[in-house]
Every structure is written in structure tokens, then in C-alpha cells.
Specification:
Layout (H helix, E strand, L loop, with lengths): L5 E5 L18 E6 L6 E5 L6 H15 L4 E4 L5 H11 L4 E5 L12 H9 L3 E4 L9 H14 L2 E4 L7 H12 L2 E4 L10 H8 L3 E2 L23 H10 L6 H8 L3 H13 L3 E3 L5 E3 L12 H13 L2
Parallel strand pairs: 3-4, 3-7, 4-5, 5-6, 7-8, 8-9
Antiparallel strand pairs: 1-2, 2-6, 10-11
Length: 308
């Protein structure tokens, strides 16, 4: 199927995606722009109003999996969905936007450029609705079920207790798909949906490589050299714990880029996040001259010692 073509496929067409027949009401027709990728597929979903760290996690997870040949699927919404699509594109991977509208009514409009990039990188758009059909509340529920049907795994990165992302998780459970949820603090209302999903059987996902069956990366700081951007982030917080906004102010980085760098540094245990959302450097060997705070470093290593 040529990648730039828009096609309407009936359920008796040989290219009709058989996965869609898992839906409670299997569609008679689907609409595709681009080409649906083969191979391993994951859906990454979550709230439209995530924390900066959740954005970074979603983007990093998508990039990590695309580098291993997976395709990333999501609903194209603002927030976690957009971060997942962008992470796939960052890695040169394929991403599919499963839409709750027809292709002539892109929603949200602000994501039109991102959606076009998905096509340019070999991904696709998928919809249950003809091009002229506008988005409506009920169309998103059906979209979420289609998204769950099309993939092997569904991950919710961050979601309050009432969230559209949870309808995708519910559909995935009904279909017997593997579900994952990123745990959060018990007092964080944005994490309540994820914690509930874990209670319902979702696997806790605490670092991206876990999806690949790998163990958590261990810290061997002396073996790693920081990039210029990573070093700038480290230097911006070496004098004391700093929120993500402060990192952006000092470094001039955009929130999405800073989030991705902080996630990478956190996974490598160069920095850690405190309970109040601020980040601090684990060891002063990463800080530039006159940057490190000796008291902070001592306290940090004490925490590392008991963090088992």
C-alpha cells in the first residue's frame, strides 16, 4: 500500500486489519492514511495535562522501543499521546495516530504538524470515520477501543482516576492484551488512575527497558561521558535542588527536551528527583568547577545507601 495514499477498507478487503475484529462491535470499514507498520506494537496513553516528568517518560519510552523496532501507537491528543508520537519520531521510528475523527477534521488542530511527521517517518493515521466526520465525545471512546485492539501492549503513563486513557486500558483488559501502568505517589491525583490500573492487574512499569525484558540500568558513572546538553542540565542543578522550570530557565532548553534529558540522567542515576519534584545531583563528579554542593552530595549518597 503506497504510504501517502488514503484508503477506505471494508471488512472483506484482504488488507483490512484483522485486529479490529477484536472490538465489541467490529467495524465494517476503516480508513487509513499511510501504511500500518508490522512487527511489535505498543500503545502509550495518558492524561492531556501531565507533569513534565510524565511527558519525559512517555517520550523516552517511545524512543527506546522504536530503537528496538517497535511501533508506537496513540490517540494524537495533547499531553502524553503527543509525547509518545514525538518520542517515536525523535528515534526515527514509526508511529500511528488512531483518530477520533475523519482525516479532514484533525484533532487537536495544533498537532497537525506532528501528525504529518508521523506519515513522513513511515507511520500512519487510522480512523473508524470517513474524512468529513468531525470529532465527538462518543467517537473517542470507540477510538480508544480500536487503539487497544491494534496493539500487543498498552501503557498508561499518567492518569487521574477519571480519564479517557483508562477506557483504553479497560478495552485492553477485555481483549486479553498486556497492560502496564507507571506508578506514582499515593498523594498525587494525577497518579490515581495508574495506581488503580495496577490494582486491576496492570504490570508496574518503572523504567523503559523493562518492556524489553531488561533489568534496571545500574549506575557506573565513571564509564559514561555526559553530552553538552546533559552537562548543562547537571550544572543547572548542582548548586541545589531545582524544579524542571528552573532547569529550563538556566539552560534555555524547551520543556520537552529538558524532560527527556532529565529522564535519561535519572535512569543513569546521575540525578534524582526529591519528593517535592525538585532534582538534585547524585555525585559532585558530574558538576563543573565550583558547581557542587558538598553537603548536598553527602546527604544524597546517604540516601542512596539505604535506597534498596
Amino acid at each position: 500500500m503506497p504510504a501517502q495514499f488514503r484508503v477506505e477498507l471494508s471488512d472483506d478487503h484482504p488488507d483490512f486489519p484483522i485486529e479490529a475484529r477484536c472490538m465489541s462491535r467490529p467495524p465494517k470499514t476503516v480508513y487509513i492514511h499511510g501504511e500500518l507498520p508490522r512487527g511489535r506494537r505498543i500503545a502509550i496513553v495518558g492524561t492531556r495535562h501531565p507533569s513534565p516528568c510524565a511527558l519525559g517518560f512517555a517520550r523516552g519510552l517511545a524512543s527506546c522501543l522504536c530503537k528496538e523496532g517497535w511501533s508506537v501507537w496513540s490517540g494524537g491528543a495533547a499531553g502524553v499521546d503527543s509525547a509518545a508520537h514525538q518520542g517515536a519520531i525523535d528515534a526515527g521510528g514509526k508511529t500511528v495516530v488512531v483518530m477520533g475523527s475523519g482525516f479532514d477534521h484533525l484533532y487537536p488542530v495544533d498537532n497537525a504538524k506532528l501528525f504529518q511527521q508521523a506519515i513522513e517517518y513511515g507511520g500512519a493515521w487510522l480512523s473508524l470515520y470517513p474524512p468529513h466526520h468531525p470529532a465527538q465525545r462518543w467517537t473517542f471512546l470507540a477510538r480508544n477501543e480500536l487503539l487497544a485492539a491494534m496493539v500487543e501492549h498498552v501503557v498508561v503513563v499518567q492518569a487521574p482516576i477519571r480519564s479517557g486513557a483508562r477506557s483504553t486500558m479497560a478495552a485492553a483488559r477485555r481483549m486479553g492484551k498486556t497492560t502496564w501502568a507507571v506508578p506514582g505517589s499515593p498523594w498525587d491525583t494525577l497518579a490515581e488512575g495508574c495506581m488503580r490500573e495496577i490494582e486491576l492487574g496492570a504490570k508496574p512499569l518503572v523504567f523503559p527497558q523493562q518492556m524489553l525484558g531488561l533489568r534496571r540500568p545500574t549506575a557506573q558513572p565513571q564509564q559514561h561521558k555526559l553530552s553538552d546538553a546533559e552537562q548543562a542540565v547537571v550544572n543547572s542543578i548542582a548548586k541545589g535542588p531545582t524544579h524542571l522550570d528552573g532547569i529550563c530557565d538556566v539552560t534555555g532548553l524547551a520543556v520537552g527536551e529538558a524532560s527527556a534529558l532529565v529522564l535519561s540522567l535519572t535512569l543513569r542515576r546521575v540525578v534524582k528527583e526529591a519528593s517535592d519534584g525538585r532534582f538534585f545531583v547524585v555525585s559532585n563528579q558530574w558538576a563543573g568547577p565550583s558547581q557542587a554542593n558538598d553537603t548536598l552530595v553527602k546527604d544524597t549518597w546517604d540516601e542512596e545507601t539505604i535506597d534498596t
